[in-house]
Amino acid sequence: MATRRGFLGTASAVGAATLLTSQTASTASAATTGTTATDEKAARDAIRAVNAKMRANYATLKSELTTQLSPVVVVSNNAVGGRFTLINDGRQVETVDPVPEYFELAKSIAHVPLGLFSILASYLSDQVPNIPNADRIDPHDLDMVVTRAPGDKGWTTPLTAFRTTLQSAYTKLPTANLPLDLENSCAKILSEAVAFIDASVKAQSFDMVSFNRFAATVYPSIRVNMTFAATAQITGIESLMKRWRTLIGEKAWSDLYVTVLSIWTTAELNQASIIIRRTMNQAKVDTHLIDLPTVETPSDPIAVALDNLARIVQDNVAAEMVFNTDLKVADALKGKEDLLSDEILQQIGGTAPTARTAGFTSTAAGTCPVTGHTATV
User: Fold this and answer.
1) 115/162 Cα distance (integer angstroms)
2) Whole-prediction pTM value?
3) Per-residue model confidence (pLDDT) at position 359
């Protein structure tokens, strides 16, 4: 959506490229005016200094703004359903992990197939096997994952060690005091995993077909665990947000910003964001709920969240003051679009890629898709 046609004037794309890149014209001009290479470097350094000074001033404004942001909820995704921090009137009011413990327990057992895969993956054949949906496996991706030579039995030791962990969880499962449906699904996953390991170690062999068969067997139980985990997260987050809303009052809550930090692979339709948006001011949720994908969980998520939010807030104001004659460019500065993106697309004759979207529908909280029972904890 952004456009920088004003910068290029009436020049065509080809003319602009010539204007900006023609070394011949630049050299001729320098020769005509008697400009030396030293003069040119000094001039260009002076131009660069303008941007450096701008960035320094921008950073100062951002640093000051981070202390003024309020109210803000910072969410850092973690293994227990998320850590939530409320910031109001310039101070951290409270930091809590609001999701009930059975969220972590349900996901822990649901991750068993992934744990097995992580051990076995490098020992797989690099040939895509004849399994359901085999066409969805990229042969090149598979080839890069497989690093061990055919016949290598190095997988038996870590797999046997994992079996010990699984068996211990299975043995102690009845005393964990889990809801019956969750206990049964966990038992199914654990017992099938142990059986798969025993058969593979005894045969000194496994393949993608046998693993695929195991994964399909436990998938219904994994869905049960997913239902319980989702119920726990919805219950915990909505309860916390309701309490905080009462704490700071309706007026402050209507202006609430929420920043959700997550790794890139869980950033789209992030579970915490889906739940939180229902508790916010619906007139502002699209601009005040900020998903921040990260490469890995930052050591100081609150500082990272506030730094990014300060940039967003000050750009919102700057957009309307700097680009008040071109609202398309203003919208680009206020959003995630690079200001030069539209100009580049026009010059190369391309179009912006269609954003990948995913829909979701609400279901009765706590209803198990397999048993039809409701989670009670």
Assistant:
1) 8
2) 0.78
3) 36
